[in-house]
Amino acid sequence: MEEITLDVIPIYKNEIFPTKNEYMHFVNKKEKSISKARILEHMIGQISDMFYECDCVIVLEKGKVIEIFNKAKGETR
């Protein structure tokens, strides 16, 4: 079983940018029968729902940005 770990940086206007120690971590154990893309899609959907009140949310996998949610513009990248 492979483990997928995503780091999430929730950002609020007029707040101090969170330090690396304050990032949220989400872990999912990937089973062989389910594709990694499908698991990532599900995890990102849950993160989007969980942090809906944030002005911006940055999602990282192994230090690489894989998703950005921007509430102010109502968009996902």
What keywords describe this structure?
77 residues, 5-stranded antiparallel sheet, 5 strands, 42% strand
Describe the structure in your own words:
About 20% of the residues lie in helices and about 40% in strands. The protein is of the alpha+beta class and about 80 residues long. The chain has one helix at about 35-50; strands spanning about 1-10, 25-30, 55-60, 65-70, 75. The model has no long low-confidence stretch (mean pLDDT about 90).
Quick synopsis:
With 77 residues, the chain is α+β, with helices and mostly antiparallel strands. The chain has one helix at residues 36-50, and strands spanning 2-11, 24-30, 56-61, 64-70, 75-76.
Topology, pairings included?
Layout: E1 2-11, E2 24-30, H1 36-50, E3 56-61, E4 64-70, E5 75-76
- Count of helices? 1
Largest sheet: 5 strands, antiparallel
| CA radius of gyration | 13 Å
Q: Any idea what the shape is?
A: elongated
Low-confidence stretches: none
